[in-house]
Amino acid sequence: MGNETKVLEFLLLGFSDLPEHQTLLFVLFLSVYLITVLGNSLIIFVITVSWRLHTPMYFFLGNLSMVDMCFSSTTVPRLLRDLLSEEKIISFPACIAQVYFLFFTGSTEFLLLAVMAFDRCVAICDPLRYAMVMSRRLCLGLVAGSWVVASLNSTLHSLLLSRLSFCGSITIHHFFCDVPPLLKLSCSDTSLNEFAMFSEGALIVMGPFLFIVLSYVRIISAILRIRSAQGRKKAFSTCSSHLTVVVFFYGTVMFIYFRPSSISSLDYDRAVSVIYSSVTPMLNPFIYSLRNAEVKGALVKLL
Fold first, then answer.
1. Whole-model pTM?
2. Phi then psi dihedrals of residue 174, to 5 deg
3. How far apart are CA 35 and CA 246, in angstroms?
């Protein structure tokens, strides 16, 4: 222990292995980020000003758009800075802060997707009691609960990371601070961090995922009982956007965090991280606006 030097900063390699493409990557990520912010802001604005969209479904969608903007803002602005700078150093406190907001916004998105599945399940399986069940008080409670639980989850992981010692290499083979690469660099016992990742972390990720699956089992069962083909199509159309977002977001995140380390690849990890941290938040507004007649109608009316 006496020979250890406590690390106070890290080097984010990012896309340093592609020096000839730094400008192109900057333009690409800047475009993606601007589309993400503008697209999600437009969704929030449309939901706010269109009284027809003042329903639980769009209340949850507005919160999801806010989370998408925050989620993308956790990683992309720092990446844009690093693409233009030779100095890719990030301090230890800043690294922990980035992990906190990454887990906070990511966990909130998982929980909100589960809340939205519950909303669709009630709307399709019990439409006569929908207005009574999905009261304003319950909707506010579900959203507030999602933010609080996500905050507790991110606080736990941030505190566990802050107690670790880092010595030797300070190079993070990623474009943002994340738990797996930081654990590889630590010279402390990381067993508690790993346990938290695969137990409490799995609860936040897999718990909502299993709830979504069970909700859609009920939804599909209810849709199949609808006699008219037009009725079945209309019922499923209200769920298709949400289901598409679930597949995109869960698929990429589970690939990163829930697979054996033996098939780990830095290039694949980086590519998949780009998808869930940048591309998915950008696509969500398009998925909901292009596949939702009410949102499209409100957009056309405003424009």
1. 0.88
2. -160, 170
3. 20
